[in-house]
Amino acid sequence: MGEVFDSDFIQSSEHRPYPTSTIQTKDIPVIDISPTNSTSISQIHSTDTAITGLIAKISDACRNWGFFQVINHGVPPEKREKVETAARKFFALPPGEKKKVRRDQLNPLGYYDSEHTKNVRDWKEIFDFTVEIPTLVPASHDPDDAEITELRNRWPDFPPDLRVACEDYATEMVKLSYKLLELIALSLGLPADRLNGFFKDHASFVRLNHYPPCPSPHLALGIGRHKDSGALTVLAQDDVGGLEVKQQLDGEWIFVKPIPDAYIVNIGDVIQVWSNDKYESVEHRVKVNSKNDRLSIPFFFNPSHYVMVKPLDELIDEQKPARYREYNFGRFYSTRRLSDFKKLNVENIQIHHFRSASASCS
Ligand SMILES: O=C(O)CCC(=O)C(=O)O
Ligand SMILES: [Fe+2]
């Protein structure tokens, strides 16, 4: 990543991560989801108190934080360990080896070391792969271009077990995400499977994030502040820590404590829109440090590319009219990705660009 500290990485002073103000007294909720391990969620009866208690916790966490950690989730720990081990081996390869699977404008999957968030370069390197074969998306962000293209994974020769470890892990993430999606649907007063149909040909992907030690952690960020644009993100982080979540009430940045074997879950833009702002997609960022590498593995649970995202009929009425006009998920996503590659001169696409006129003053 260069020997001198490159100005591309420098955050403007109001977005720098240090000094962190006060001693933190708050934490995002930790939720034990073991009641879902013995019951299929669609068979849930409202008389089951373990489940109704769980749904209440999910509802509070989504409303007040947009973020929570889950424990006793049923994902076998060895599936995660295998990806972590293989990912560390991959990122330790010489740059020339990693660049053999580098992404490009045509195929955004594989390795990349110069992502930008809000036009500032992130102090990280990544490896992306999709989960469904095939994963279909619009060929371009141009609204007049109806062409659909297939995203193809690029697997490196080394380490040879990376591919299988990643594929097995992704299968677990899909299972866990449906469970969470059903709990979230119930927490919104909807039938458990109300949202499942939007994921028939889901455009989900997994990202391996590697944050190398940074010589100037007070100037740069591992990832600048952003909101996730999909439905849900399910993230594994190692024990180093660095993820911070912006608290909705007072704007304070809250450090997310690493808990061994927990997954961090956050509401993305799509659920914000479906819920008509009952739940919010919350800003987060990643601090880096000068001593330790950090590895994190987000699974981005995205709807099918052709889904038109809009507030759900059940959640709008005269008092709460739809706050968004509908938008096409795939098109939104490919427009957003444009700015991951390079600096743009305009603000990146955001869901507030689809706010209805009647809701624009809020
Ligand atoms: O590394 C992390 O903890 C968060 C990563 C993240 O926010 C992202 O990749 O969108
Ligand atoms: Fe994120």
UniProtKB/TrEMBL annotation:
Residues in Fe2OG dioxygenase domain copies: 202-303
Record-linked Pfam families: 2OG-FeII_Oxy, DIOX_N
Key words of the record: Iron, Metal-binding, Oxidoreductase
Annotated spans, Disordered: 1-23
Top-rank taxon: Eukaryota
Family: Belongs to the iron/ascorbate-dependent oxidoreductase family.
UniProt name for this protein: Fe2OG dioxygenase domain-containing protein
Annotated organism of origin: Nepenthes gracilis
